[in-house]
Amino acid sequence: MKKTALILAGTLAMAFLANACTLLPAQTQPTAAPEATQAAEDTISPDATETDGGTLEFSLTTLTGDTLDQTVFSDNKLVMVNYWATWCGPCVGEIPDLVKISNEYADKGFAMVGVLTGDDDIDGAKQFIADQGIAYPIVLPEAFFLDHADGIYAIPTTMFFDSTGKQVGDAVVGAKSHDDWAGLIDLLLSQVS
What we know:
Strands 8-7-6-10-11 form a five-stranded mixed β-sheet. The protein has a two-stranded antiparallel sheet with strand order 1-9. The longest helix has 18 residues, at 2-19. It has helices at 2-19, 71-74, 89-104, 122-132, 143-147, 178-192; strands at 21-22, 49-50, 56-57, 59-61, 67-69, 78-84, 110-116, 138-139, 154-155, 157-161, 167-173. The chain contains six helices and eleven strands. It is globular. The protein has one domain (2-192): Glutaredoxin, CATH 3.40.30.10.
């Protein structure tokens, strides 16, 4: 019985490692102080402000030099935020599927944002983005995206948000196939519509 439990634990650990990369403390980006953020309950980061209408405001420069602001949320019913790094095999392995998903769902009230996490090679990441033809925005963990990075222990980690910036469902740890992502996105879109 003990041997079976050890074999099962080892198998589960191997499955996790095949689908995600552990973030070591030295690889994580700095996070906001605990008193400055209430990650799951508060979608406003210390670098963002809330207007009288209750909408989230931020403005960031993407790794391709474009501007990303709160309209990524307000203009869409569902936003997929994927925390990843170029050194993470499972992260890189799912990029072609994420590019395909981003294109397929672009006219369905859906947007995707990539957050480069625990990756010091920004120039290499920029080249990777160009080589892979990634058209969805990629940012560093800042403002809204820094708040939600708190507590991430492995990448890829993916979260979904509604048009107000409120998290929808649970965070997904690990890489998924195109079909798995499409099924989950269809389900979540039906919940926020």
